[in-house]
Write a structure and sequence with these properties.
With 193 residues, the protein is mainly α. It is 69% helix and 0% strand. The longest helix has 32 residues.
Length: 193
């Protein structure tokens, strides 16, 4: 194993640990943590990065899949979690679960996106909305009461709020796309892969 692959693997392990610490602490803290997007996102992110961690063991010689789609989707999802909790909800981060789910995990996922950008397509940000939309469907279908202060399906502003969130996430996605493209251009200009 070369140094870059080892370093990348240790970095991915750190992301997995952050994700699972946040998720595990939330499960220990709450009676029903499954309704929260933060917990579902942390668990999904941990599983995704665990898959990326073991990817080289299954023929991924470069240590990273050619497509960055899944990492971009995780970055958008984790930024949604952090942004919503820290701004709209004005949530505290004085508990372990909250610190990891709303600050540390989104931060390391964002750093990972910035540092390891690869192939990205113009349409990726459109499809990166799939996980937030899946949660929204669950939120409405399961009649989740969490987040009703700003996201209430019975309120006339619900559609506008959802459209606003999706537009914001799309803008974040295109910002992430721009960052990845700039990183790839800089890498080629500097003689990198």
């Amino acid at each position: 194993m070369d140094g870059r692959l080892l370093g990348g693997s240790l970095w991915r392990l750190a992301i997995v640990v952050c994700s699972f610490i946040g998720f595990g602490a939330a499960v220990a803290e709450f009676n029903d943590p499954w309704q929260g997007l933060s917990q579902q996102a942390s668990l999904l992110n941990g599983v995704v990065y665990l898959g990326l961690l073991v990817y080289p063991l299954f023929g991924g010689r470069r240590g990273e899949p050619v497509s960055s789609w899944l990492r971009g989707a995780m970055a958008v999802l984790m930024l949604l979690v952090a942004g919503t909790y820290l701004t709209i909800m004005e949530g505290p981060v004085d508990e372990t679960w909250s610190l990891f789910e709303h600050v540390l995990t989104p931060l390391v996922v964002l750093i990972d996106w910035i540092a390891v950008g690869r192939t990205v397509r113009w349409w990726y940000p459109l499809t990166w909305l799939v996980f937030p939309l899946a949660y929204l469907i669950y939120f409405v279908a399961a009649d989740v009461r969490l987040y009703r202060g700003f996201l209430n399906p019975d309120d006339s502003s619900f559609t506008g709020t959802v459209v606003g969130f999706l537009a914001g996430l799309l803008a974040v996605g295109y910002l992430l796309l721009g960052i990845a493209k700039a990183r790839v251009r800089a890498s080629y200009a500097g003689g990198g892969p």
